[in-house]
């Protein structure tokens, strides 16, 4: 397993000595690597809600999202009221390559993804997409989030049906037309893909490792931004995978 903490610290030290990197403060008080001369991360902000949404039904609904390292995506959505569970995993590729070691090669078509099960009477599909684009990741980056680079870290929505696909595509178009971001959105909608659950050691990672350098710098700020920008949707106690198993 790649140790993201060691990778982060080694990269900062090595690149900084070459004068190629700057530390940029982003929303929520976190830090992000910015290559000198490159594009800075988008400011974390609450973007407009979707004009159209998936119909509310009885029972739970699910969606699958990818926005960089699945630790932070999972960690943020676990704090959203109405979310029943958020599970780290892989989507976009085949069952045979749905492992951390193979996905990290960037050659499998998989993205690190999170399956979110939610109660639509408490929070809707469209509202979850609003949170996803506002505080969970930067949708203007191409195959990258923070220090993580590669197709496995792309911004993607994996619709589970035609209605989800339509709402997702319409929302991306809406945000583009409204100029919600200073750069174009590069979030793909990838239909017909299966979600595969990640290894046990990746589940609840942010909750279990709050002081790990990578988590502290890149993932915890997403939770703080959620609390600040979406106070009505924030809950203190996360919906942990460990609790579901129990």
Automatic annotation (TrEMBL):
Gene name, Swiss-Prot/TrEMBL: Msra
Purpose: Has an important function as a repair enzyme for proteins that have been inactivated by oxidation. Catalyzes the reversible oxidation-reduction of methionine sulfoxide in proteins to methionine.
Matching PANTHER family: PEPTIDE METHIONINE SULFOXIDE REDUCTASE (PTHR43774), PEPTIDE METHIONINE SULFOXIDE REDUCTASE MSRA 2 (PTHR43774:SF1)
EC number(s) stated in the UniProt entry for this protein: 1.8.4.11
GO molecular function, a single term: L-methionine:thioredoxin-disulfide S-oxidoreductase activity
Alphabetical list of InterPro entries matching this protein: Met_Sox_Rdtase_MsrA_dom, Met_Sox_Rdtase_MsrA_sf
Species lineage: Bacteria, Pseudomonadati, Pseudomonadota, Alphaproteobacteria, Hyphomicrobiales
The protein's name: Peptide methionine sulfoxide reductase MsrA
Family affiliation: Belongs to the MsrA Met sulfoxide reductase family.
UniProt source species: Rhizobium favelukesii
The organism's place on the tree of life at top rank: Bacteria
Active site, per annotation: 69
Ranges for domain Peptide methionine sulphoxide reductase MsrA: 63-214
Keyword set, alphabetical order: Oxidoreductase
Catalytic activity: L-methionyl-[protein] + [thioredoxin]-disulfide + H2O = L-methionyl-(S)-S-oxide-[protein] + [thioredoxin]-dithiol; [thioredoxin]-disulfide + L-methionine + H2O = L-methionine (S)-S-oxide + [thioredoxin]-dithiol
